[in-house]
Design brief:
Layout: H1 2-32, H2 37-70, H3 77-114, H4 117-147
Helix pairs in contact: 1-2, 1-4, 2-3, 3-4
Protein name: GtrA family protein
Organism: Hymenobacter guriensis
Keywords: Membrane, Transmembrane, Transmembrane helix
Length: about 150
């Protein structure tokens, strides 16, 4: 139960921002280029990614700064690189499949199949998240001590 709480605390705010950005990105794309469904699927995917990873990176920076400050050390470009590397390890494989294949394909086809743009996008996001989080959480757990512990020198 403790792990579930940790994962929800880490991923849920990013997910909520991502849902809003996904819908906004796809909707804006549909309005600017009607009939360009692939463009809308990609816009929704990438808008969601920017919101999601932007939030997580910001949270990781705050935590790293806090850890370093307790030791009298400052956050540096090297610390920033470590935060980015930790995200890349956590999401690398899952994100490649998700952003370039699974999520855009689902966001293209599910609105067509369901007959609802918003409903199809939300369903696509939910289904893609399942295939995304299993490897991401495994990678997060494996990389926590090595890449996210700024208490070590």
């Amino acid at each position: 139960m403790r792990k579930l709480h940790e994962w929800l605390r880490r991923y849920l705010p990013a997910e909520l921002l991502s849902v809003v950005a996904t819908l906004a990105g796809a909707s804006l794309s549909w309005q600017l280029a009607p009939g360009q469904e692939l463009r809308a699927a990609l816009a929704g995917t990438w808008a969601g990614n920017v919101a999601y990873f932007g939030w997580l990176l910001a949270q990781d920076i705050v935590l790293a700064r806090r850890q370093l400050r307790t030791q009298g050390r400052s956050y540096s470009w090297r610390s920033f690189g470590r935060n980015v590397r930790a995200l890349a390890v956590e999401f690398g494989a899952a994100e490649l499949l998700d952003s370039f294949l699974i999520r855009p394909a689902l966001m293209l086809w599910l609105p067509r199949w369901t007959g609802s743009r918003t409903g199809g996008i939300l369903l696509a996001k939910l289904l893609a998240d399942v295939t995304f989080y299993v490897p991401a959480i495994i990678s997060y757990e494996l990389s926590k001590k090595r890449l996210r512990d700024f208490g070590r020198k």
